[in-house]
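[RESIDUES AND BACKBONE]
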Amino acid sequence: MRDKPTDLRTLARKAAERAALRALRRARLTAAKQGVELSDWEGEFLGSVEERVKTYGRAFGDPEKGTAGQALSIMQTVKLKEIAAKATGEKPARRFGRKPKPD
């Protein structure tokens, strides 16, 4: 029996939701294990995004801010990567292709 396209979309949406929740938890746990102090804003960001993903299946409402099958918007994904890099002690990636200013 063939799956309906809506079933495939539902499965993909649920997989994106699980991946987003896993990434949010991993960033928080990595910061705790490494002893990195997250700012109040970063902690609140992780908590609020996690709550919205659990409640609504995605953390943004405007379809122009992300693709249809994703649980996080583009900027939420960027911020999550920055928090995860901070938690692991890596330098944050360059933004917008700018080169660092020489000292």
Q: What stands out?
A: The chain is about 60% helix and 0% strand. The chain has a mean pLDDT of 84. The chain has one domain: 5-61+69-88. Residues 43 and 62 are 23 Å apart (CA to CA).
